[in-house]
Amino acid sequence: MDWINAIVQGVLLGGLYALFAAGLSLIFGVMRLVNIAHGDLIVLAAYVALVVVEATGLHPLLSAILVVPVMAAIGYGMQRFLLNPTIGKDLLSPLLVTFGISVILQNGLLIGFTADSRRLSAGALETASFEPVTGLTLGVLPLAMFIMSVLVIFLLDHVFFHTRLGRAFRATSDDGEIAQLMMIDRRHIFAMAMALSLGVVAIAGIFLAIRTNFDPSSGPTRLIFGFEAVIIGGLGNLWGTLAGGIVLGVAQAIGAQISPGWQILAGHIVFFLVLAVSPRGLFPKMD
Amino acid sequence: MAEVLLSTHGLKAGYGDFQALFGMDVALNRGEVLALIGANGAGKSTLLKAMTGLVRCQPDMVRFKGEPIGGQRPDRIARHGIAMVPEGRRLFRSLTVEENLVIGGERARKGAWTLERIYALFPILNERRKNPGTALSGGQQQMVAIGRALMANPEVILFDEISLGLAPVVIKDIYAALPAIVESGISAILVEQDVSRALAVSNRFACVQEGKVSLAGTPSQFSRAEITAAYFGT
């Protein structure tokens, strides 16, 4: 039963990794941009949530009402004024700019919030759990995270495939030059993609802040988990990203079950195995 | 005197250090079809790209209804009412046939050309509307590309190499659609390798050679030998 428990916890943890990864996947899909600052933006969202909760007394989960729009606005501005001017020339320039944003965010947060690790308290919700089957314990919070991540992927998928904005995303991704001839302003579309990405980042950041301690240097690890989930799932496939997150979460849970020191390593090993066997991921986009 | 809709004035343009156009003067009047003929590499496609903003140039070098539009962003130029059927069709591969058509018109002003009318013009597209755009034959893809341009209800459509790589029977079908397009009030510039076909459907022509217009007029104004000479620069 311990093993089944571990695997179920791993699946639920995978939901959080999918949230880390979904925004990354979206940005890569629309503008072929690898956002090195993605992990630090998750941490920024966690700090924004911290400030909102401390200032308003809202429950951390409810703080999303403010944190999501704030992060989306930051995303729109960041893309429009920092990243757009570098896009299209070559792949390296925007990559370097996101690297710079990463450094600035880490140090900015260090100045503003010190290196102390922080945490958001979700009260009784943190420890609430139930037993659907004898011997199998499900935490309410991990389950809520998982349901939320499925919901977010479902919504992103809907936006991508069934809305005017999604059509513009796909057209711009397919052929940016011709998309402009369809009266699509690429600068706006890219900024909207980043806004959507950071909206998801906001939710990921809130969950991160409730689940674990975080400090200004927590970002890069989240970036790696996000990357691994995207690549395991297959680039450009949102449901694949969810599957990738779950594979990573389960691998870590099984590793931890073997020995606590193996948790992170087991995830990386599975990532490398997938990369070696199927370099395009488990569910590559059909094209 | 017909109204000049779209014109270039001493247009110089190119790609990076490579200059392709050396002072090109072309004018499209309202209601006409202008054929652009010329050998490969003469600068025909670059001219269309400069007109649509895909290649940069000075503002005064391209004018639409007398207003300078040269160097504007492609999405802004498209909003003036200039659409293009690009060389090689370039459909959006992750969009269905119908989505490819819809995206052509959803940011444009409404007009006579609707999804229904495109399907009436090219009935095969209605049957294939749920297919990915790129799952169609070359000729059907060209129909989608034309429909996509029409959906914007433009005043001008620029056709770049409309028959390139297509079977003769398909080319006939594509050209059969041209009168309906012109009758709906759309003016057109037609870049075409097949000189006879281009001259047969156009009111005027311009022959492009080494980034300049070497001969221009109505097809009946010149002998075939004169046009051939301008084409090859002999």
UniProtKB/TrEMBL annotation, chain A:
It comes from the Bacteria. It comes from Allorhizobium borbori. Belongs to the binding-protein-dependent transport system permease family. LivHM subfamily. The keyword Cell membrane applies. This is Branched-chain amino acid transport system permease protein. Keywords: Amino-acid transport, Cell membrane, Membrane, Transmembrane, Transmembrane helix, Transport. The chain crosses the membrane at residues 6-29, 41-58, 64-83, 95-115, 135-160, 189-210, 230-250, 262-283. GO terms for cellular component: plasma membrane. One of its GO terms (molecular function) is transmembrane transporter activity. GO terms for biological process: amino acid transport. InterPro entries: ABC_transp_permease (IPR001851), BCAA_transport_permease (IPR052157).
UniProtKB/TrEMBL annotation, chain B:
Signal peptide: none annotated. The keyword Cytoplasm does not apply. One of its GO terms (biological process) is L-amino acid transport. It comes from the Bacteria. Keywords: Amino-acid transport, ATP-binding, Nucleotide-binding, Transport. The keyword Ribonucleoprotein does not apply. Residues 6-233 form the ABC transporter domain. InterPro entries: AAA+_ATPase, ABC_transporter-like_ATP-bd, ABC_transporter-like_CS, BCAA_Transport_ATP-bd_LivF, P-loop_NTPase. SUPFAM superfamilies: P-loop containing nucleoside triphosphate hydrolases. GO terms for molecular function: ATP binding; ATP hydrolysis activity; branched-chain amino acid transmembrane transporter activity. Belongs to the ABC transporter superfamily. This is Branched-chain amino acid transport system ATP-binding protein. It comes from Allorhizobium borbori.
